[in-house]
Amino acid sequence: MRKLITTLISTTLLGIFLLTSCSSYNSTFDFSELQEECGTEVTLSNDGEYIIASPTTSTTKGLIFYPGGLVSYEAYLPLMIKCAKQGIKCIIVQMPSDFAILNMYAAKRVQMRNTDITKWYLAGHSLGGAMAASYIAGHSSDFEGLILLAAYSTADITSSGLKVLSAYGTNDKVLNAENYSKYRSNLPSDFTELIIEGGNHGHFASYGEQSGDGEATITAAEQQDLTASAIGTLVN
């Protein structure tokens, strides 16, 4: 009991430290401007809890996205617009204090509020990907697949029946390469791996340069194009 209490106190103190000492990476664009630029193929809505990028044509396919740690959820909108143009309703969750670990179960609420979708995919970047994997491990029957961007699954989902896409950039200096290799055996044997030559950690979103990351030799738009194409192939 004493050990459990000590662990809880340590975890709480660490959480308080992170929340008070760190600042989020904000998106590098204006939402209203992007809304005007996304074209007639996609409609956008932002209620402060979710951003939804919906194809204008009817679809039964949906993707729930968990942002990376300390990254504003709006920063993933360019990537999600590219996915929406492939006929996928994309819903980006705003996490408490920009930490997916504080609301790992957010996907359930999204599914309950979007009954038009019958085929769901769960995705996440970095910490968001790890939390998405942890959640889907216990709810695999509610999803068709999992998409990990610069992330890995510490939970064993080898027999889940899920379609899985795992993507990372060759210049990523934030992703723990040792853990990525260690935990790849937790994925189904037929998972798809996308290795983006010249890509880095931060270019899956649009929030500028991330501390400690490698320098990309391709643009964020190029990395997101490759990622959205792979996601579209997995879903469609």
How would you explain this protein's 3D organization?
With 236 residues, this protein is an alpha/beta fold. It contains 7 helices and 8 strands, in the order H-H-E-E-E-H-E-H-E-H-E-E-H-E-H. Strands 1-2-4-3-5-6-7-8 form an 8-stranded mixed β-sheet, with helices on both faces. The N and C termini lie far apart (50 Å).
Short description:
The chain is an alpha/beta fold.
Order of helices and strands: HHEEEHEHEHEEHEH
Low-confidence parts lasting 5 or more residues at pLDDT below 50? 3-22
Mean pLDDT: 89
Strand content: 15-25%
Give a short account of the largest sheet: 8 strands, mixed
Per DSSP E runs of 2 or more residues, the count of β-strands stands at 8
What separation lies between the terminal Cα atoms?
50 Å
State the strand order across the main sheet: 1-2-4-3-5-6-7-8
Question: What's the shape?
Answer: globular
Q: Radius of gyration from the CA trace? A: 17 Å
Helix percentage: 25-40%
Total helix count? 7
Structural class by secondary-structure content = alpha/beta
Describe the protein's topology:
Layout: H1 2-21, H2 31-37, E1 42-46, E2 50-55, E3 61-66, H3 77-84, E4 89-93, H4 106-113, E5 119-125, H5 127-137, E6 145-149, E7 163-169, H6 177-183, E8 192-196, H7 220-235
Parallel strand pairs: 3-4, 3-5, 5-6, 6-7, 7-8
Antiparallel strand pairs: 1-2, 2-4
Helix pairs in contact: 3-7
